[in-house]
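Please annotate this fold before class:
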Amino acid sequence: MLKSEKLTKILLPILCVIASIAVIIIAFVGIYVPKLNKLKNIIPDYKLGSEVDGIIEYRFVPDDSEEEKEVYVDSKGAIRGIVSDGSKTSSSSESVEVTSELEEAEATPVDDTGFAKETRTIRENEASVLTKENFEKSKKILEERLENAKATEYAIRLDDKTGNMVIELSQNDDIAYLYQVALSAHGEFDIIDYQTGVVLMDKSHLKNAQAVAYPDSETNKYTIYLQLELDEAGRNIIKEISKQYIQYTDSEGTEQTDRVSIRVDGAAIMTPFFGEEYDNAVLNIPISKDVESVDVEQYKESVEAIAFLLNHETIPIKYTQEGRTLFIESTLADNTMDIIYWSVIVILIIVFITFFVMFRARGLLAGIMNACLIGLVMLVLKYVKVVISISSLVALYGVIVLNIIFLYQYLNRLKQNKENAYFATMKNYYAIVFPLVVVSFIYTFFVSVTVAGLGSVLFWGMLLQIIYNTIIVKYVLDGK
């Protein structure tokens, strides 16, 4: 029994040291696996902030374009749609956009719409909407979209007199995705008569939109739907639409199909007809079919972006990009991150040697434990996607220094054979450091990436220090 306890007391510290060395290698080198005839590191990279990685700049101005078009107007003179020109394009409101060409449906001309036709000059932005209130509202909506799209960093500068905007994004983000779901999208929704272009229903009848995935029991594959919940008036409109937009045989015995076009920002996402009366407040619009289970979340994410647009207000101003997209480089040198990375390694090696000289075997183990802790902090920062800014790097150095101070005090007490060395060190150390822990926790909730990054590094660093030192370091060093 005594031999077993003694063996355990020897083996467990050895296992802790081996595990610590493994963590150090993973954190500072990575884990490489073969992929497409190359070795790929499966450990994620840091999420770099714009002051480290540079920014992408867009300039947007209110669209001042206009075009003469033949439109349908009601008895009050309001535009009810754009007359179809035979190329299957139309628009949904007084501010007009042209849809993409559709190939799958055959148009059936319908002349009796009940509306008069007029030729009008259609402006993308009427003079009445170009107000300071709408400029500021547009900026707010864009900020909400960028937040929803999980933009790492962004800045929007608005000229509230002209409506011009400068939008800056971090190069570290998926710029194409952010541009698509946040910047280029207007947020309109409508259902039109596919044959004529008359608007049948607009966004005002939408209560909620969401992405849903339904499995096929036979193939075990999924269909991703954009699910639209309608208000009562919208439900009645769809019910009437389902009676009229059907397949039928005309007087000459030819099969005809009357379709509607369901559109987001003027682009059709579906051109259906109905086989029977539809009396439901929920429309399921298939977006992606035969999706493998492992890809469901990825496909849903793109549909959720559309749902977000539909659940929020339409941008009151239509913008167009002015000039080219600009890349503004970071003021830091290209090799700055490499210098910082290797400087951390050098510091840890110096501490390792110093501890060994001063405290012998315990110092050797403490040096390994210290490097392991910093490796753990670095891995956590990668996986929780903390944005690395200059302040974040300063905070990382702070965590290193603080842990060195803690270990030095602890090793010194052990060397002097003081009782309860670890808890005495904890009491003395955290009496001074505790306010820093509290401040770092508060800082993680700041909107500013610079402040939040600093707080996140300090928070995770101090949290891991307490847990790791109490569970691992105390056990290994007290056993010596």
In short: The longest helix spans residues 336-383.
